[in-house]
Protein backbone atom coordinates (compact mmCIF):
# COMPACT_ATOMS: atom_id res chain seq x y z
CA UNK A 1 0.00 0.00 0.00
CA UNK A 2 2.94 2.30 0.69
CA UNK A 3 4.15 2.05 -2.91
CA UNK A 4 0.65 2.56 -4.26
CA UNK A 5 0.15 5.77 -2.24
CA UNK A 6 3.55 7.10 -3.27
CA UNK A 7 2.77 6.36 -6.93
CA UNK A 8 -0.67 7.91 -7.16
CA UNK A 9 0.05 10.95 -4.97
CA UNK A 10 3.35 11.72 -6.70
CA UNK A 11 1.66 11.17 -10.06
CA UNK A 12 -1.18 13.50 -9.11
CA UNK A 13 1.29 16.24 -8.17
CA UNK A 14 3.11 15.80 -11.47
CA UNK A 15 -0.14 15.76 -13.43
CA UNK A 16 -1.30 19.01 -11.81
CA UNK A 17 2.01 20.66 -12.63
CA UNK A 18 1.78 19.42 -16.22
CA UNK A 19 -1.70 20.93 -16.48
CA UNK A 20 -0.29 24.24 -15.24
CA UNK A 21 2.46 24.05 -17.84
CA UNK A 22 0.06 23.22 -20.68
CA UNK A 23 -2.92 25.43 -19.83
CA UNK A 24 -1.34 28.60 -18.50
CA UNK A 25 1.27 31.03 -19.71
CA UNK A 26 3.35 30.52 -16.57
CA UNK A 27 6.98 29.77 -17.27
CA UNK A 28 8.44 26.54 -15.85
CA UNK A 29 10.75 28.43 -13.50
CA UNK A 30 7.85 30.28 -11.92
CA UNK A 31 5.91 27.08 -11.46
CA UNK A 32 8.91 25.44 -9.80
CA UNK A 33 9.39 28.40 -7.45
CA UNK A 34 5.69 28.27 -6.67
CA UNK A 35 5.96 24.59 -5.76
CA UNK A 36 8.94 25.17 -3.46
CA UNK A 37 7.17 28.10 -1.77
CA UNK A 38 3.96 26.08 -1.41
CA UNK A 39 5.89 23.25 0.24
CA UNK A 40 7.50 25.71 2.65
CA UNK A 41 4.15 27.28 3.54
CA UNK A 42 2.50 23.88 4.02
CA UNK A 43 5.42 22.88 6.24
CA UNK A 44 5.07 26.08 8.28
CA UNK A 45 1.35 25.44 8.76
CA UNK A 46 2.01 21.88 9.90
CA UNK A 47 0.05 20.38 7.02
CA UNK A 48 2.96 18.82 5.14
CA UNK A 49 4.06 16.29 7.79
CA UNK A 50 0.71 14.39 7.89
CA UNK A 51 0.58 14.55 4.09
CA UNK A 52 4.12 13.14 3.94
CA UNK A 53 3.18 10.22 6.20
CA UNK A 54 0.43 9.27 3.76
CA UNK A 55 2.32 9.97 0.53
CA UNK A 56 5.81 8.75 1.44
CA UNK A 57 8.23 9.24 -1.44
CA UNK A 58 5.37 10.56 -3.59
CA UNK A 59 5.30 13.63 -1.37
CA UNK A 60 8.95 14.01 -0.53
CA UNK A 61 10.51 13.71 -3.99
CA UNK A 62 8.67 16.52 -5.88
CA UNK A 63 9.57 20.17 -5.33
CA UNK A 64 6.90 20.46 -2.65
CA UNK A 65 9.08 18.21 -0.51
CA UNK A 66 12.12 20.36 -1.20
CA UNK A 67 10.28 23.44 0.06
CA UNK A 68 9.21 21.63 3.19
CA UNK A 69 12.78 20.41 3.78
CA UNK A 70 14.08 23.97 3.42
CA UNK A 71 11.54 25.22 5.94
CA UNK A 72 12.32 22.49 8.47
CA UNK A 73 16.04 23.21 8.16
CA UNK A 74 15.54 26.94 8.67
CA UNK A 75 13.23 26.33 11.63
CA UNK A 76 15.75 24.06 13.37
CA UNK A 77 18.67 26.41 12.65
CA UNK A 78 16.77 29.44 13.97
CA UNK A 79 15.98 27.53 17.17
CA UNK A 80 19.67 26.66 17.55
CA UNK A 81 21.52 29.73 16.21
CA UNK A 82 18.97 32.54 16.32
CA UNK A 83 18.74 35.05 13.48
CA UNK A 84 21.73 33.61 11.60
CA UNK A 85 19.84 30.32 11.30
CA UNK A 86 17.68 31.93 8.63
CA UNK A 87 20.68 31.94 6.33
CA UNK A 88 22.20 28.61 7.43
CA UNK A 89 19.28 26.23 7.84
CA UNK A 90 18.14 25.82 4.24
CA UNK A 91 21.63 25.04 3.04
CA UNK A 92 22.31 22.54 5.80
CA UNK A 93 19.03 20.68 5.35
CA UNK A 94 19.23 20.41 1.57
CA UNK A 95 22.99 20.04 1.09
CA UNK A 96 22.88 16.32 0.32
CA UNK A 97 20.20 16.64 -2.35
CA UNK A 98 21.80 19.63 -4.02
CA UNK A 99 25.24 18.00 -3.95
CA UNK A 100 23.87 14.79 -5.45
CA UNK A 101 22.18 16.73 -8.25
CA UNK A 102 25.40 18.57 -9.07
CA UNK A 103 27.59 15.46 -8.95
CA UNK A 104 25.28 13.26 -11.02
CA UNK A 105 24.66 15.96 -13.62
CA UNK A 106 28.42 16.45 -13.95
CA UNK A 107 28.93 12.70 -14.35
CA UNK A 108 26.18 12.59 -16.98
CA UNK A 109 27.92 15.39 -18.89
CA UNK A 110 31.12 13.34 -18.91
CA UNK A 111 29.37 10.19 -20.18
CA UNK A 112 27.14 11.89 -22.76
CA UNK A 113 28.37 14.62 -25.08
CA UNK A 114 26.20 17.68 -24.52
CA UNK A 115 25.42 19.66 -27.65
CA UNK A 116 24.30 23.24 -28.03
CA UNK A 117 21.00 23.84 -29.77
CA UNK A 118 21.26 25.89 -32.94
UniProtKB/TrEMBL annotation:
The keyword Transcription regulation does not apply. Keywords: Membrane, Transmembrane, Transmembrane helix. The chain crosses the membrane at residues 6-24, 31-48, 83-112. It holds the Pfam family SpoVAC_SpoVAEB. The keyword Transmembrane helix applies. PANTHER family: STAGE V SPORULATION PROTEIN AC-RELATED, STAGE V SPORULATION PROTEIN AEB. This is SpoVA/SpoVAEb family sporulation membrane protein. It comes from Candidatus Limivivens merdigallinarum. The lineage of its organism: Bacteria, Bacillati, Bacillota, Clostridia, Lachnospirales.
